[in-house]
Amino acid sequence: SIVFLNDSFVPMEEAKISPMDRGFLFGDGIYEVIPSYEGMLVGFAPHIERMNNGLREIGIDFAWPVEKWREVCENLIEKNGRGNLGIYLHVSRGTDSKRFHAYPEGVAPTVFAFAFDIPAAPVADKTLAKGYKVSTTRDLRWERCHIKSTALLGNVMHFQHGFERGANETLLFNANNELTEASACNAYIVKDGVVATPPLDNQILPGITRFILLDILRKNGSIKVEERIITMDEVFAADEVWVTSSSKEIAPVVEIDGKKVGNGEVGDVWQAAQTLYSAGKH
Ligand code: PDD
């Protein structure tokens, strides 16, 4: 595949980064994944805005005009076959001459981007949808989960927890047994037709799929939405559970720790929400 590294497009094999890059040594960087279906980027502007917020928050002085990022994304899409792609963007603090924790002065950030295949967007049909199985565990990540940091070991270990148990994702609960999110997705419950998802704070990533979905549901008005604290008991008593991310849109969860969610089948509210999302995503 053709990737982007520091202002040029090169074959993946030719893209080289120093081992002294702080992204490698410290996981010191910010990343994004933007979905693109047959050339249509979803959530482009809010993805770039979230990346700029992250860069500002960790003191990386780097902001390209949005148009420059769009050019990089569109080039990657064209050079990599225009299919269903996740566009990965990554800005690390850059390559230093020494390994010293403090932010270096005068070091240029490293910019890397590539495209990878993602599944076609889900068809909003509950008889065709793939039901997810998830595991659960205590959320042991840091208290800055709103930053989309490339330091993903906490998320990786949580994902692996579920993976080893045959699950597709892992739902995370804080010390008060409140739902936070999943290892690489936001999380939702549906009870009596009402969708609920945890509020935005330092415990979760402000997902762009979440942002677009809530916006579509609120504007449509046929499904009620709440952003509020959700307890573990509510998750196990839910009629439906969903997880969302850029590479999967809304994924219906049918099993948690081997227990059925609702009747164990993909639900009607999922079908209604995915229908609205498919039609209204932008
Ligand atoms: N994951 N929460 C976490 C911890 C995530 O890593 C992600 C995204 C989300 C969903 O955010 P969005 O809707 O903006 O994709 C929530 C990406 C896709 C990844 O790391 O591959």
Automatic annotation (TrEMBL):
Pfam families to which the protein is assigned, alphabetical: Aminotran_4
UniProt keyword Transferase present: yes
GO terms, biological process: amino acid biosynthetic process; folic acid biosynthetic process
Cofactor: pyridoxal 5'-phosphate
GO CC annotation terms, alphabetical: cytosol
MF term (GO), any: transaminase activity
SUPFAM superfamilies: D-aminoacid aminotransferase-like PLP-dependent enzymes
Pathway: Cofactor biosynthesis; tetrahydrofolate biosynthesis; 4-aminobenzoate from chorismate: step 2/2
Catalytic activity annotation: 4-amino-4-deoxychorismate = 4-aminobenzoate + pyruvate + H(+)
EC annotation from Swiss-Prot or TrEMBL: 4.1.3.38
Function in brief: Involved in the biosynthesis of p-aminobenzoate (PABA), a precursor of tetrahydrofolate. Converts 4-amino-4-deoxychorismate into 4-aminobenzoate (PABA) and pyruvate.
Family: Belongs to the class-IV pyridoxal-phosphate-dependent aminotransferase family.
Protein name per UniProt: Aminodeoxychorismate lyase
